[in-house]
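Q: Bacitracin ABC transporter ATP-binding protein, please. Structure only.
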Amino acid sequence: MKEWIVETNALTKKFHNFTAVDQVSFHMKKGSITGLIGPNGAGKSTLMKLMSGLLHETQGELKLFGKHPGEDPFVFRRVGTLIEHAGLYPALNAYDNLKMKALMLGCCSHELITELLKLCSLSTTGKKKAGDFSMGMKQRLGIAMALLGDPELLILDEPTNGLDPQGICDMRDLLKRLQEERGMSILISSHMLAELDKVATDFVVIRSGKIIEQFTKEELLERCRDCFQLRVDDVKKASVILEETCFVQTYEVLPKGILRLYDHYEDPSHIARQLVLHDVALYGMEDHHQDLEAYFLKEGEEHVE
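A: Structure for Bacitracin ABC transporter ATP-binding protein:
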C-alpha cells in the first residue's frame, strides 16, 4: 500500500478576486521526487507555500504525513523549503550561515553543520563569504539550510534557476543522493524540463491554478515511447486498413488526422502503399520521439484547444 506524504483535496487559495490555486487535488507518495510543471503564473509557488505553511488555504484540505496542519501545526517542522530566495547572510561564510539558522531552530551542533556542508559539496569553502559565492553554491547552501532539522519532505522552487551546466549537474546529483541515501521525499518545480525528466519519479502538471494531470515516470515513458507517425485525410478509414491489411494492433488516433503506430512499422513504405491503394491521402510520415518537454507542450496545446 502506498504511503502518501502529501494529500490535497480541493485545495484553494484566493487573493481578493484572484484564484491562484483552484480546487487542487493530488497525492505525493513517500520517497518520490515529484516534478511540479507549469507555465509562469500557473500557481506553482503558491501551492508550494501552502504546503510549507507560508500561506493558509482559503478553502479545501491539506494533509501532510497523514495529519491536518490545523490540528498539528508542528507537522511543518518535518518540511524543509527553498522557495524564491535562500535568505542567506552575505557577510557570513557557509558554516556561519548554517550555524545562525541552526541556533534559531534549536538544533545547532558542529557535527550536523559539517555533515550538511559535506553533503552539499560546500566543505571546502572555508572563510569565503556567501555574498561571493557562485549562484550554484548559493543554491546548494540554501538547500543545506533547508535540511537543518532533518526534514522528511523537501520543497524546492526553481532550484536550478541561473545555474551553469556544472551547477545544474551538481544539483541533480545532490537531489538523487538525498532521495537514495536519506529516503527523502522531494517536490521540485523547474522550467528546465529536460533536467526534471532526468531526476523526477513522478510529475504533476498545473495550469491556471488547476491540476491538469498527474503521472509517474513509467507512465511518461509509455506515453512518449518511440513510434511512427502518419498524417492522413481520413483516420477512420486509415485505422481499418492498418488493422486489416497491415496487421497493426497498437496505435493511437490524435486530432488533426494524426495516427501514431507503436508496432509493426519496420516497413513504412508498405503501410504507405496500402493507404494510397485504398484512396487514403497521406500528407506526412515520420519517426517520432517525445520527451517530457515535447509532451508538456503538446498537452498544453490540447488543453488550450
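A: Brief note, in case it's useful. The chain is about 35% helix and 25% strand.
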